[in-house]
Amino acid sequence: MPVRVVTDTSAGLPEHVARDLGITVLDLHMVGDEDDKSTSGLSSLELAAAYARQLERGGDAGVVALHLSKDLSATWSAAVAASAVFDGSVAVIDTKSVGMNVGAAAMAAARIAMDGASLAECAELAEDTLSRSETWLYLHRIDEIRKSGRISAATAMVSVALATKPIMQIHNGRIELAIKTRTQAKAFSKLTELITARAGGLPAFVAIQHCEAKEAARALEDQLKASLPVDSSIMMMPMESVLSVHCGPGALGVSVVFSQAESEVNATLADDAEYAAPDPGPEDEIADDSAAMALPAPSQAPTNEVAQK
Description:
Blueprint: E1 4-8, H1 15-21, E2 23-26, E3 29-31, E4 38-40, H2 44-57, E5 63-67, H3 75-83, E6 90-94, H4 100-114, H5 119-131, E7 133-138, H6 143-148, H7 153-162, E8 167-171, E9 174-179, H8 184-199, E10 205-210, H9 214-227, E11 233-238, H10 241-247, E12 252-257, H11 262-274, H12 282-292
Parallel strand pairs: 1-2, 1-5, 5-6, 10-11
Antiparallel strand pairs: 3-4, 7-8, 7-12, 8-9, 10-12
């Protein structure tokens, strides 16, 4: 029996994808009333029970557990505590992320698990996928994320004072301000530039999750399709409620799995520098700066199971 893969609803995996790949998706908890909704993580008892069921189904081949960043939820700590009773049969990965980057890592691990890969191999590929991934959040307003406490008070005050449409980035598991723009159009243009530069001319897997903002998501999708290589894979879906409650209406989550690791990009840039013209003009310098932004991505970017509807 194959290694089993467990994640939670913050990963944003479409139901048919999880079903086809045999991925178990656990529901994070929604708490509060309509006017004051929030979320709470899974307990160690809930997770231990889920892992035990999957170990039984997989014939004790092992479980890869992929939950949202430990800096965004207590679920990771509960998962580590739960895994301790299984003597190394459950590999809990600190994803340092949230959204479809976690979903993509789960897909990659589940795919090779179906081919008979070991627990160590599945965990390694999941970590590789995450290392080549980036997540950005476009916020139409910051009320919800400010109330959640997931951005600093200073960032919130600046955004309100300047009436900006901020783009946040998940960096080392935390939400940080990446770009400040005044309009949605400028935000999408800047985000497209950033993603295209980091892709470095290679295909990428992009998942756009939206909160009551299908038209905006479609506009960003069109820009990315026009800018990325034609064999890139772009999908769009509604944002899970456990995420949208913190992001608010109009928000977009953009998860990207690139085709090249950061170390590979840096090595390429270093090689190119040896052959660079001795006195580059301003345009060349700008090009070099843009290329330096090209960040990592997984060698097995998931495409087949999530074909654009």
